[in-house]
Amino acid sequence: MLTLIARRLLQLPLVLAAVFALTLTLAWAIPGNPLDNPDGRRPPPEVQAALLAQYRLDSFWSFASSYAARASGTAYAWDAMTGELAREAAHAAGLGQAPPMRRVFDLGPSLQYRDRAVNEIIGAAMPVSITLGLAAIGIALVVGLTAGVIGAVRPGTLADHVTLGVALIGISLPTFVTATLLALVFCVWLAWFPVGGWGGVRPMVMPALALSLPFAAYIARLTRMGMIEQLGADYIRTARAKGLPESRVILRHALKNAFLPVLSYLGPASAMAMTGSFVVERVFSVPGMGQHFVSAVQNKDLFLIIGVVLVFSTMLILLNLLVDVLYRWVDPRIE
Amino acid sequence: MMRLILVVGAVVLLGLLSMAGPAAQPRADFVFINRGDVTTLDLALVSFMQDQRVARLLYEGLTRQDVFSKAHAPVPGVALRWDVSDDQRVYTFHLRDDARWSNGDSVTAGHFVWSWRRSMLPDYAGDYSSKLYLIRGAEAFARWRHRRLAEFAARADVTGDARHDAAMALWRETLEAFDQMVGVRAVDDRTLVVELERPTPYFIDLTSFPIYFPMYEPLVSAYERVDPQTARLRSRPDWTKPPALITNGPFRLVTWDFKREMRLEANTHWHGRDRLAISSVAMPTIEEPNAQVLAYVTGAVDYVTDVLPAYRGDMIAAKNAFYNEHKDLVASLRREGLDSVEIDRRLPPDPRAHIHAMPAFGTYFYNFNCRPTLGDGRPNPFADARVRRAFALAVDREAISAGVRRIGEPAAATLIPPGSIAGYASPAGLRTDPDAARALLAQAGFPQGRGLPTIEILFSPDGGHDLIAQSIARDWTRELGVDVALRTRETKVFREDLKSGRYMVCRSGWFGDYGDPTTFLDINRTGEGHNDRGYANPAYDALLDAAQNETDTSARLAILSRAEAMIVEEELPLFPIFHYAQIYLFDAHRVSGITPHPRQVQYLDLVDMLGDGVGPDVPKTMRP
User: Fold this and answer.
1) Do B298 and A187 count as a contact with CB atoms less than 8 A apart?
2) Mind giving me the DSSP string for B176-214?
């Protein structure tokens, strides 16, 4: 187990370096001037050129190397070691000026939101996406397991057909349809929840529900399939023959084994729920990470594009690692 | 099994726990959706409409605009009064004694000098920095600093402490250069003297524009330093966020949660505090157009500044139907000369009336590429003004504004929206005339369109430009017999093609910044940074120069009207299609203080929630 963790953590920087190289190359190829404001006035050309140079946007290699040095923390470590950090701070203090803002892992400034650093933007948005994703997975587990077990215990009955049908709809309907419908019914017609915003439980219920639907549906189908398979197995017949109560047979014996596929699905599902909530975020005005994925590309906000991709990649890798570890812990047979 | 239950339990628990968090704050007195989130509150960089709207709530310039007067007259802000020298080049502003920052400090003339210096520096390169170049020597100073910075950057041999020192020396030199070169000085704390490059009748108007607002020097300078590597001034952006930010306007910034909400509260130190009828303002970030309307419908917000969903045309049609039900009353209210918001207020309350298509200070037009050759080197038929005029004459603009846009935007014959600038008489412009168009085209050597290459219309994919392009293409094919191809480019590519002249005809538009025709007419000057048409006409430039040197107001406006006629009647480097409307959502029976003036500058500190018992509760209406 420890070697697994160590190996994955050692791989992390390599994977991130590859992700960085690929993202930068693609983002750099987006045509257009990232400092160009579509509604705004243009500063004189020579000033625009100087601005590009200031952000090192005038040369691919200069941008790539300076970004890599600052984002990886090597620039900070180097400046700390050579005493440059202390010298800058002392120099600024001597003049009564603010010392430069130095972060260990500095993802740079946002070109679109001139008053924000990428670290700050991601720092504000990531907890929101994680919270929303966790809530959605929590709802999906409760709903999906219940529906799956009900369907499996009484296969072919009305209850089974209804849960299967709802699950099919949940998987096939795109989120922008279900989210909009939920918003219309629960936020506008019934007015039980606010149409948008963040903070407290009420604004989170609808987006979490909308986000959970496809996951709940998939979990329901996985559970139902696994349960039907397990309920036909010999050991279940033995358990029933022993005279165990049916609830104990289903929950204790069958569900235990039927749950393993669900558990392995939970890893990628949690990652997807935390990172793939763009549509839900947009419909319910949730200030998460998903919006930055899209708007940063549209604005060619290079720092933000790369920063968001790097942080997402790190999250994905760590989540997958966590699931692998949990999986082994739950089912020690797996090597 | 225990382990399994633990894992599932933990996930569910985490999910449910994550739902608990701090609850939302109580509702503010006035809640509005300000497009997306604000991008910056650094006045040197403010450019987007939503940033300007908030800047006007947080800061106050030397003057404000009386947005409920037809003349859009300047009224005192921080300056109580101002004197203008006989040659109209020196302005002396007398600042009010009770102008205060939100921390209680006095607003001084020195703060204006300091802020203007900072905003004109190429170090920050704000979109609007060139608006400060009206001040004597400002442009020369900015160029000087730019040149010196470039020289400094080239000196790679200087490193370490020596580079720090050299950067600081350049900064000290810059401060001296500013004092010597730029014509603005604080005579004392209450007196600010500004010398202009040349007489500029709209200078007072511009002092109400955010780039001319003051920043609190002790705050901003504490977050600013000279970067030893580049010698540029660099700001740590955290000064624009609460609790740091200190401003001098009607409101102060309380919270600014990125992409969530911005909250303002009345600035108790503001001299006009007693006039405020609302004491808190909230701006939630809701970006999805449909969600914005839903937020309004459910009562979560009082005002939406840009109504964008595709169904807004239907909403306006519904309002017209409502007007039709009260036809006689509407007609008589219009005869009384009431403004559009006041008319809604006199009609019975109806949710259909909450949408408002207000005339805006901008025009949608098509650019002709005027350069002798096209981007790919082919000869450009549109270099000939007769061809441009012929194509403009063939377009049915009414069909576009009434049939395609459907949101009450008037078809345009001029570049400047008529009636938006007091005292300015708009030229008549062209009327659609296909016969004249064909005759002109023949005269130019292309009878029945023969000899013309396929005409390419360039536009960006979003915003319904495709439908407009189709309508224009149909007119040109039918009336002129030419082949038309539609070419879509993603917005960023589109803008690059536009700037570098890689197009034949393309969609475009312009919004004015200040109350003078030059805010529109300057974009056609030879070599001007926004002259995407590559239009170069010495006669036109001469007219603008003549206006610049004319000190008599009405004579000057007459010259500018001739210049506009040259653009929209004879030369047609661009042809106007419709004047934009700004689509608002608010209930006129509940909210007062939003002006229908075509300049569309909103001072939202004027907002009064009618019938709440706070403030005068008397609707503000347009005065002659």
Assistant:
1) yes
2) HHHHHH--EEEEETTEEEEEBSS--TTHHHHTTSGGGS-
Same domain, B259 and B397: no
Confidence of residue A50 (pLDDT cuts 50, 70, 90): confident
Domain that residue B259 falls in: 2-19+30-38+244-358+584-622
Q: CB distance B18–A131 less than 8 Å?
A: yes
Residue A38 one-letter amino acid: P
Contact partners, residue A318, CB within 8 Å, separation at least 6: none
Shared domain check, B416 and B511: yes
With CB atoms and an 8 Å threshold, state whether A114 touches B40: yes
B442 pLDDT band, cuts 50/70/90, is very high
Q: How many domains does chain A contain in total?
A: 1
The pair of structure tokens assigned to B288 is 């999805």
What value of ipTM does the predicted structure carry? 0.84
B575 and B611 in a single domain? The answer is no
The whole-number pLDDT of residue A335 equals 54
Q: Is the pLDDT of residue B23 over 60?
A: no
Chain A residue numbers with beta carbons less than 8 Å from the beta carbon of B7 are 263, 326, 329-330
Q: Is residue A149 part of a domain?
A: yes
Structural domain boundaries, residue A227: 118-330
Kindly tell me if the per-residue pLDDT of B91 is higher than 60: yes
Residue appearing with tokens 């576009």: B400
- Residue A41: closest CA among chain B residues belongs to which residue? B127
Query: What pLDDT was estimated at residue B36?
Result: 81
- Quick check: is B483 in a domain? yes
Q: What pLDDT band is residue B466 in, cutting at 50, 70 and 90?
A: very high
Model confidence at A327: pLDDT above 80 = no
CA distance B443 to B386: 8
pLDDT at residue B590 above 80?
yes
Looking at the structure, tell me whether residues B386 and B449 fall in a common domain.
yes
Residue A115 has pLDDT above 80, yes or no: yes
At A260-293, the pLDDT tens digits run: 888 888 878 888 888 778 889 888 989 888 888 8
Q: How distant is the Cα of A116 from the closest Cα of chain B, in angstroms?
A: 7
Mutation choice for B interface testing from A52, A195, A270, A300 by most B CBs within 10 A: A195
Q: Answer yes or no: do B577 and B588 share one domain.
A: no
> What's the pTM?
0.90
Residue B7 maps to a domain = yes
Locate the chain B residue with the closest alpha carbon to A38: B495
Statement to judge: residues B329 and B425 lie in one domain = no
With respect to residue B410, please indicate whether it lies within any of the assigned structural domains: yes
Nearest to A292 by CA among A101, A133, A123: A123
